[in-house]
Amino acid sequence: MSKPVAREPQRRNSRSNRARILATARRELGRNPEITLEELARAAGVVRRTLFGHFPGRAALLEALAEEAGESLKGAVAAGARPSEPASHALAHFVLSIWPVGDSFRMLIALARHDLGAERVSEILEPARSAAAAILERGQRDGLFHTHLPPAVLAVGLESMTIALLEEVNAGTLEDDGSQVAVATLIAAGVPEKEAGVVVESVVAERGVSAV
Fold it and tell me: What is the model's pLDDT at position 168?
């Protein structure tokens, strides 16, 4: 006796709708944290009933986004970890790994003031912030980065700069694959401009070879 297959297309369609809703919400909430669920449904190309079928309310949608963002950031931090490389190279790897999920950062910061609360957002961002601070501390200890700011404070400043530059990309005033932001981050951390460019160029080449 053959197994019923009619439900599988429905399940695939449901998963596709959920993924599209989350992707749309991640983008739109980063732009406008006060957007309504009805507006999100229209932007995602689904009816209101479909959105509410997946997420019964705003809180449920935001928590799903928070969990998704947390997992994306954890994966990016793990992918960018280079504990055995010089801190300047490690920081470049970190930035280039985080950049593709930058919208998650931007969305979470926007939601911190409106919905999720600063404590929940800090909890989600903690792995990335701790990793950045650890790289900066190592670089300060090795004489690669300036020391006039504590590592954790410097990490927050660099995070804010990254989010601001991501805003410029989204606004169309900057086109970047993460390499320019990586150079800017190294310079802000205290690496001379020419050296920062050489480091990032080397890291980009290494990551390109690793991806093949």
Answer: 85
Q: How far is CA 94 from the centre of its chain?
A: 11
This prediction has a pTM of 0.75
